[in-house]
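Fold this sequence, please.
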Amino acid sequence: MRAFIVKFMTPKGEEKNCILQAENRGALKTLAEQQGWRILQIREKKSIWKKLHTRTLSGTQLIFWFQQMAVLLSSGIPLVQAWTLLCRDWRKAGEKQCLQRGVFRLEQGISVTEVLEESELFPVMVIPMVRAGEQSGQLAEIFQLLGTYYTYVEKQKQGVLQALLYPAFLCCCALGAAIFAIFFLLPVFENLFSQMNAPVPPLTRGLLQVSHSIRAYGPEILIGLGVLTVAVYGYSQQSQRRQALTMRLWRIPGVRKLLLMFSWQRCCQLLAIQIRSGIPLLTALSEAASAVPISGFRRHIHWLCLRLEGGESFSAALAKSQVHLPYVSAMLAIGEESGQYDRAMQAVADYYRWQLTVAVARFRRFLGPAALLMVGGIIGLLVCCLVLPVLDMITTMSL
């Protein structure tokens, strides 16, 4: 028996996590069907050593894998042979072993979707899209779409990282200036003030006390910061903690709108692909929502699915939900009138992709001046605390 961490949604729309013992994933899915659960994710429980050696593929690796698979399949090469060719020159041993195990599973007749899910090397959102490609016979097209999607995501990440380079450089300069002032500059000025019996302003006195504390408890402070960093990292790696943080951000109006735009962009992109592949709307909506990493949005989409099962139209049900956005409702109404849901969903995905790109560009423009102001404030504080008392002392001596 193997242990699995199962993330599922109950018939009431509640998301839960539990650890179950089963022989394989198929047995877990059978159990879920009996209980009325909708499985969102299944991960095999592994030791810390295995977790370190089997991680999700990076963005560049995903782009390479999906684009090469699309080219090979479009050229008429069988799936198993194409998979074997890509595994042959894979560099990382742990990832290569998982991928080679996938070749063996494919030769046994296991579907590509199950192989990708068992490997745990691919993101959760990949699974419903590949399943749609298998059901429609358009696996090469789906791989090409995934390659294009992750190319876009990687460009966005690179843009954000480039935007953070200049502020990070300024922050490092400010930190270096503060360390130099605390360990080298402030002791010199403190001796000067004590020798001249000059009055020290309260702000300068406070800065000197901070300098004394840092110099006296420097190792303890470093250890505390290290422990805090490890604790924050461990907190961020727990899915339940991340979901709790996301739900807190969900309650903030401005952040909620950005999260809704991100959720609808990903959901509608998947919906357009799945509907174009011939998958029914209700099934496609459920699968697309499972690929969105925000539990609040998934819960509301589950509620929408229940309303659709009751015979209500998509646009009418969405108007009553808490994930309503005007553009989505307008395009849904057009899709219902024309019968072309795929084009309407693609238009929504393109629109919110553009909106998110604009938001990232604004963030990049704001970040540089904000970091410059912060560094200027730190340096200005040091100048005021050190230079002004010296000027007062010189003025007093001249009198």
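The mean pLDDT is 79. The beta strands are 2-9, 15-22, 38-44.
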